[in-house]
Design a protein that fits this description.
Elements: E1 2-6, E2 9-12, E3 17-24, E4 31-38, E5 45-50, E6 57-59, E7 67-72, E8 77-82, E9 91-99, E10 111-112, E11 116-121
Parallel strand pairs: 2-11
Antiparallel strand pairs: 1-3, 3-8, 4-5, 4-9, 5-6, 7-8, 9-10, 9-11
């Protein structure tokens, strides 16, 4: 599967953004889909994951209540709605595809999008 992330940008603290990740060349509904982020000099960290079919989700504690992951299997797309953004949310955001999985660790993800920059100004 190939992934294309979009929707990043520059936003003020307290603002909102919606990231999208479109999948192609694969059976999207076979993949758990995750969002991760990586700030300069830091490791890639888990943000959210959604199950391939039953809609179950998990969110990192740092974004719980502010970010929401969702997916539309008919459109082969996963979303990350980000509200109440903070400067510490600034990072490159990556979507990943985990075949038949539902994991929070990056090592389980076989496919990655190219990343989209999110910058939150104070």
């Amino acid at each position: 599967v190939q992934l294309q992330a979009s929707g990043g940008g520059l936003v003020q603290s307290g603002g909102s953004l919606r990231l999208s990740c479109a999948a192609s060349k694969g059976t999207f509904s076979n993949y758990g889909m995750g969002w991760f982020r990586q700030a300069p000099g830091k490791d890639r960290e888990f943000v959210a994951v959604i199950h391939r079919s039953d809609g179950s989700t998990m969110h990192a504690d740092s974004v719980e209540g502010r970010f929401t992951i969702s997916r539309d299997n008919a459109k082969n797309t996963v979303y990350l709605q980000m509200n109440s953004l903070k400067p510490e949310d600034t990072a490159v955001y990556y979507c990943g595809a985990d075949l038949y999985g539902f994991n929070t660790a990056p090592r389980y993800y076989e496919h990655w999008g190219q990343g989209t920059q999110v910058t939150v100004s104070s």
